[in-house]
Amino acid sequence: MPGWAKALLITLGVVVVLFVGAIVVGIVYVVRNKDAWQAKGREVAAEGRNFGANSDNQGCVDESVARYKKEPGYFNGLKASLFTQGCLEKSRPTPGFCDKVPVGDINKLVEWREGQCEHYDLAEDQNCEKFLFMPVVIFCGEKKRNEN
Known about the structure:
148 residues; mainly alpha; 78% helix; single chain
């Protein structure tokens, strides 16, 4: 076997071992931390429910966005989503809150979420569309299904 072929096989072997090692380290990390992450998620949702008990639907969204803007990022987007979900469960209705949420039409839904992110000066934030307004979509979708 030529020397270059041996070097290529050794290099591929090292890459495969490193790749598998990285996956194993990732799995171990997730397993060790998942309970803490779940507890933090429950804590954030409880904060949302507590806030929602003294707020209306729109107040929940405004507070969630304000919290997110203080510390943006992927994980804080998740936290904001959990906060909003918990908050909307307990909050008072805001008249017309769900009227413009396009439930059932994915194209209009994407456009609506983009518009919400623009409204809150988060148009350039990729986490805004992913996390901040999905709880509103779910909340309004459930509300509209229950009305029918």
